[in-house]
Amino acid sequence: MPTYTPPLRDMQFVLHEVFKVTDEFKAMPRHAEVDTDTVNAVLEEAGKFAAGVTFPLNISGDTEGCTLDQKTHEVTTPKGFKEAYAQYVEGGWAALSCDPAYGGQGLPFVMNQCLYEMLNSANQAWTMYPGLSHGAYEALHAHGTDEQKKTYLPKLTSGEWTGTMCLTEPHCGTDLGLLRTKAEPQADGTYKITGNKIFISAGEHDFTENIVHLVLARLPDAPKGSKGISLFVVPKFKVNAEGSLGERNPIYCTGLEHKMGIHGNATAQIAIDGAIGTLVGEPNKGLAAMFVMMNAARLGVGNQSLGLTEVAFQNALAYAKDRIQMRSLSGVKAKDKEADPIIVHPDVRKMLLTAKAYAEGARALQIFCTLLLDKAHEHPDEKVRKDSDELVALLTPIVKAFITDNGHISTNACMQVFGGHGFIKEWGMEQFVRDNRINMIYEGTNTVQSLDLLGRKILSNNGATLKKFGKLVGQLVAEEGVNEKMAEFINPIAYLGDQMTKFTTEIGFRGFQNPDEVGAAAVDYLRVAGHLVFGYLFARMAQVALREIAAGNADPFYQAKLQTARFYFAKLFPETATLMRTARAGSKPLMDTDAALA
Q1: What would the pLDDT profile of 201-232 be if each residue is shown by its tens digit?
Q2: What whole-number distance in Å separates Cα of residue 470 and Cα of residue 85?
Q3: I want to staple 118 with a disulfide (CB 3.0 to 4.6 A). Which of 50, 101, 546, 591 is the partner?
Q4: Where in the sequence numbering do the catalytic residues fall?
């Protein structure tokens, strides 16, 4: 059976020693009183909840799955899931970073991110139920009417109700311009919604008495394509004027998807048969409102793979120290045993260190992004808010795609460490692989994220936002460029940073002549950009570790951090050279292939 220990020490290192979050909070009036002790105490309790309450339900939830009563359209979640959610609500975790105006605790987003990393390590399928509610909360908080906020936000904040996002239809996934769900205006200002949705995570369950669905649909006079989409809030049960629940809305779960992983989460087929909803935001401007939820979900999906990478690494490391097979190539290491522990073998260490490096890089990136979100929402300086928002927009597709791709690499490597036992369910490793696989697909496939990064976030503004991130790299290079001990970390990012300008310009010029060139290069491009970001973050972490060691700190944590950074730059970062070469190979080897694909 797998085990899980919340990585509090590494979280605290990134939060307090690398990013000095409490100093950042002091510049934000709402968070000015949040100190180090508060952050650590909250995360310690969050770790206890994740490890003690939801983690023990992970394998059993995967085995049992969800069941649908076709007559009542009600879903029963795996044993213990509902009770765990009740504990989650009772502990106030749902309200952690929500607005105090609606009953929230108002703590920084960055703390909520750390909570969710641990919940994802413990049980991704369970965590998706409350996780989607945060996205619904954010969309309504940003674009809802006063009446909608009053009706829904207190209940979403407390966790009494949960939320979903209803986008995908049987004939359209990423291309939302094709959706057919209709919304007919009613005399009382409401809308009657009719259509079918699929792949709706947490679309039906027994956790709460009401579910708040955010549904994309078309008005009768809507323009074709994505410019004709509106957003509606459609509750499972209608809500009376005084806040009590009214009659059942005809928005039903008609089936549950049979999936490769996340079996404990109800991925629902939803039939909407004249359900009553209200408009969120302006008519035909639904995507702008929904993108608030979608972007939150994309950051959340990256966090899911971070969680799985961490828990897979922990279990593979423990197994590698215990499992004995063969002798070390450089001589016997465990003289008292029949064979050496497999951790002595170089390739086993490579697999372990790959997962460790990708977990630590992802953690730093997630904390960096959510700290930027806190600044974008709460900093009094308008320029800081604007710059932070632009950087988050740039980094969001990298968080979603790079971290989930790395999660796929890492969970598979950790399963490989177990050998044949990794293929067996009781060890838990194959579930981590299966659960992670969806993360590369939903909330926009990783190819879509790559197109978003290269086409929308970089080429559309001639690389202006990329240059802002480049300035951060440049500042670190200028600060540490003459420090010989930092050279192994600084030189690679300085070199790649210089190359990125030429690389981006080249791809952009080709794309101007033939748009397929952007499509052919985008996935490789995102991975190069991901390594630049990880490289910058690992250099910052190494910088702190070297300073602590120089100051006489003998904590082995800092040596471990340096060793992981060295491994990352020596064994993982160099793939950027290959990726730039394959990106530059262009679209011809892909598109001039009609005979091969006949």
Answers
A1: 999 999 999 999 999 999 999 999 989 999 99
A2: 42
A3: 50
A4: 443
Which residues lie below 8 Å from residue 358, measured CB to CB, with a gap of 6+?
309, 403, 406, 407, 409, 410, 572
Token digits of residue 365 = 């990136």
The tokens describing 328, both together, are 């070390």
Q: List residues bridging with 141 in a β-sheet.
A: none
Q: Name the E strands within 128-188.
A: 161-166, 182-185
User: Quick count: other Cβ atoms within 10 Å of Cβ 471?
Assistant: 12
pTM score over 0.85: yes
Q: What is the pLDDT of residues 492-512, one digit of tens each?
A: 999 999 999 999 999 999 999
Instruction: Name every residue whose Cβ is closer than 8 Å to that of residue 348 and which is 6 or more positions away in sequence.
Output: 320, 342, 417
DSSP secondary structure string for all residues of 399-430 = HHHHHHHHHHHHHHHHHHHTGGGGGSGGGSHH
CA 530 to chain centroid: 14
On whether the CB atoms of residues 532 and 497 are closer than 8 A, the answer is yes
Q: Which helix (H) or strand (E) holds 259?
A: none
Amino acid in position 299: L
Contact 590, 520 (CB under 8 A): yes
- For the chain, how big is the Rg over CA atoms in Å? 24
